[in-house]
Amino acid sequence: MKDRIKKILNDEIEIHELSVEGADAKYEINIISDVFEGKSIINRHKIIYSLLNDYIKTGEIHALTIKAKTVGESDK
Prior knowledge:
Elements: H1 2-12, E1 17-23, E2 26-32, H2 41-58, E3 63-69, H3 71-74
Parallel strand pairs: 2-3
Antiparallel strand pairs: 1-2
């Protein structure tokens, strides 16, 4: 599932850096992309949730921790 999450996010978002960790339907996503520029934390999470919604509905993803930053924020 980790590879599937990575592929979905890479296909839909221009990513600077991405890591996905976890197992047993519980995953942590650390993502750096300028697509998050000017967006609140909630809206950043909504972007990720919308892309993974099918897997959340089926229970393949039960818990998701998201750390979403812009490239500028990651340098700090």
